[in-house]
Design a protein that fits this description.
The chain folds into 2 domains: about 170 residues, P-loop containing nucleotide triphosphate hydrolases (Rossmann fold, 3-Layer(aba) Sandwich), CATH 3.40.50.300; about 60 residues, no CATH class. It has 8 helices and 10 strands. β4 and β5 form a beta hairpin. The longest helix has 16 residues. The protein is globular. About 45% of the residues are buried. It binds adenosine-5'-diphosphate (ADP) and magnesium ion. The site of adenosine-5'-diphosphate (ADP) has 11 residues, from α1.
Length: about 240
């Protein structure tokens, strides 16, 4: 567990962005510490993925800063952020269908560093509990194993921060429990700072140390998951979305 006294390793301050003529994010500030799992929760369309696009370097905010280890990285490209230890997964676990698991690992190694070997790939596969033959086609893997493969490719780079966008999407309950265990291991044992997006509030209590809630581009609540669940503004945001 982390304490409130530890400084955030990765943070953003007062982020604004407009897309398609609309303000999508308004004044978002948040941070995550090493070993901490921060849940980023909110109804569909709240702006969670857009925030990750800004944090990972695919979008530039119209205002605000992104900080890694105290350094302003707002203008750094995705690849340079990856080199500094920022890793990201996407909502859809897209893998190169026609490559084998071994070839996916090889491609990930070569893209990042000539010093990574098959040994690193095997160690990363072990850390995420990926137990499939190296000769299996990536396209033949079930959703959970696709997600594990993509996580393992990231882990080989020894990230300090991981942004996971709806990693539980498409999984059944037993698989979500397994995934939660893996994510807790990444935070607890490897001391990675993790931001985890999920739109289902109820899934975060088992895994997040802390949550922030986004609704219509604004941060409406922050705190430990149970307190946040009871917040009337949070309940209203979910109720209105369901009723709409
Ligand atoms: P979430 O991940 O929380 O479901 P998103 O960040 O994907 O939400 O989307 C937030 C809002 O921003 C939605 O209304 C979406 O339609 C809009 N949006 C996202 N990307 C773009 C874009 N490139 N251009 C215009 N609107 C966008
Ligand atoms: Mg999203």
């Amino acid at each position: 567990m982390t304490t409130d006294a530890a400084p955030a390793l990765f943070a953003c301050e007062d982020i604004y962005i407009r897309l398609g003529g609309r303000t999508i994010l308004e004044g978002i500030s948040l941070g995550v510490r090493p070993g901490e799992v921060l849940g980023v929760v909110g109804p569909n369309g709240a702006g969670k993925t857009t925030l990750f696009e800004i944090l990972s370097g695919r979008y530039t905010p119209s205002q605000g800063r992104v900080l890694l280890g105290g350094r302003d990285i707002t203008r750094l490209k995705l690849f340079d952020r990856a080199r500094l230890g920022l890793g990201r997964t996407y909502q859809s676990p897209v893998v190169p269908d026609a490559l084998t698991v071994r070839e996916v690992f090889q491609a990930a190694r070569q893209a990042f560093s000539p010093y990574l070997t098959s040994f690193h790939a095997e160690a990363a596969a072990e850390k995420v509990g990926l137990h499939v033959p190296m000769t299996a086609l990536a396209g033949s893997l079930e959703t959970l194993n696709r997600r594990k493969l993509l996580l393992a490719c990231l882990l080989m780079r020894r990230p300090r921060v991981m942004l996971l966008d709806e990693p539980a999407a498409g999984l059944i309950n037993a698989e979500i429990d397994e995934l939660d265990g893996i994510i807790r291991h990444l935070a607890g044992e490897l001391n990675i700072a993790i931001m985890l997006v999920e739109h289902r509030l109820e899934l975060l209590s088992a895994i997040a140390d802390r949550c922030v809630v986004l609704d219509l581009g604004k941060l409406i609540a922050e705190g430990d998951p149970l307190t946040v669940f009871d917040d009337p503004r949070v309940r209203a945001a979910y109720f209105e979305t369901e009723a709409a």
